[in-house]
Predict the structure.
Amino acid sequence: MTVPPEELRPAADLPPPTRDEWRELALGVLRKSGVQASSPEEALASTTYDGVTVAPLYDAADLPGDPGLPGAAPYLRGARPVRGGWDVRQRHEAADPEAVLADLENGVTSLWLALAPEDLPRVLERVHLELISVVLEAGERTGEAAEALLAIAARRAEPAGSGAAGLTGNLGADPLGLRARTGSTAHTGTGTATGARTDAVTDTAMEEAVALARRCAADLPGLRALVVDATPYHDAGGGDAEELGCSLATGVAYLRALTGGGLGLEQAFGQLEFRYAATADQFLTVAKFRAARRLWARVAEACGAGPEPDPADPGRALAAQLQHAVTSSAMMTARDPWVNMLRTTLACFAAGIGGADAVTVQPFDARLGLPDAFSRRIARNTHALLVEEAHVARVTDPAGGSFYAERLTADLAERAWAWFQEIERAGGMARALESGLVAGRLAATRERRAANIARRRDPITGVSEFPNLDERLPERTPRPAAPGTPRPAAPGTAGAAAPGTAAPAGAAGAEGLPVVHHAREFEALRDLADAQETRPAVFLATIGPVAAHTARASFAANLFQAGGLATVACGPLTDPGEIAAAFTASGARVACLCSGDKLYGEHAEAVAAALAGAGAKRIWLAGRGDHPNVDGNVYAGCDALAVLRETFGDLGVGRTAPDGPAGPGGPGTDPAAGGGPVTALDEKGEAR
């Protein structure tokens, strides 16, 4: 009997492959597929919205250097030496004590309360504050909310409680974040001289934040006072590096204010918590959270901060970035909202893998209004599934050492640092908001992303791809106004930004950065189609046998249904007269030819002529190529939104929208724009 060697090496006798050999083999395959390129990288590489190149292959040569160890600067691999999961943080926007208790009894470990100060006593009445962390979000009423929370804790100090000193969490002060989100200038000292920094401690909100930080540093070791919320920049359509750069600039502005207000450097670092968006782009999200820690460690190094441990968490240094991940609002859809469960699961997974300290999973129905008990339960259980069943948290920094993850992290950090430096050169974050520098940069990225969404290069499952026209959406209670948020200027008034545009945050009357939902334009057309008494339809002229026309007929049906238009196919026909008769019987006024290129050459001209004679206002062809009597083409990569808007115009949809059942928010409404009416198409063919 042959005894196998102690170590089995299946490839021991094979020569190690080289990257050049892979290039040669890959290029051969690509050329057989009809792809003309000088290298596989040229054909297969892609670029993120931040300009980071994602290559088709990585190897050890791509590693940027030693990433260090978990718990040690630059904290790339994590802020703690050992990690056993993350803080499950649920957000509450309604004063519902029962919902809060249900969360805490079923896996939630901290509360994020976006509530008015007067609601806190009732919501926290039966909550054991010594067992959980509380994060506040009260906008301009942050000081009131902080005092309310501290008063609640103080009242519980006797006979055995630790009172406010035992609180953990964050008081939620974020003057620059509020300014970015709302455009409010009431608290950020815009009266400074031109060119001077406007992020100094010269205004009410910043002074209030500094006072809270001094109080926390002196008497409340488990509480932090400030949040560096980067989600407004993500929600405005920014890229990952732009989100990171804005967070660094904001964090540095707060460090200046805190140290200027009397705190030591390490104390100032210990008063900040960073909030980032986590998306369904798994690898970019992992890289973003890893890069954020590395970048903040570079700031700490430049400032001279040492490795002083956090009094509330001795296992981590005060200078190590404390991270709160929130699943992206921009990626959430109002249509087919159940797909959001998949998006948020991916985002939660990526944030956990990336080393976030706390993670908030938005309920799948977040775009429809306040979540119900079922959607909150699914959000909670997403964490439990990943941690308890998938064992995601058993390994510290599982992405560490990956050629791709390490290179992507380094490249993203480089782009973010360059953007941060640009903001600093412009005078700091407050000045960059006031001047429109930030808004302009985000708008450019937003426009590039919008173009890709319109062409379905960035597909949105359930909306731009595979829509379900027969879906019945759940009804939800409308979301209340955010606490402490100033009322924006009314549309059409002086200083109001045009819908969908970004006014310079901080300008008089400005509404702040826009809030973007990637699916909005498709969903607006869906709402408009749903508002009609009879769903408008497009006729699919399926030429030839099923095998010849199915692929393009399915593609065309998917495209038109993404705008809420029904599709009616004639079946496998070739006779122009029969196809024209089927078109007339369908009641449609727009047609689309669907078949293979060979059959197009034989029948497209005659069929299109017959359809035009039968009254078709526009005739599309699925695929490329010019044919007589055909008005336009639909194909992979075409501007689907432009096609849909033209088709809506041809069908007469959008002149008026009758009352009737429609999408969330009522007949003909756009939920992404706050439930306003979508009753017409403007001169550009856009829903309004």
Remarks:
- The radius of gyration is 28 Å.
- Residues 114 and 653 are 40 Å apart (CA to CA).
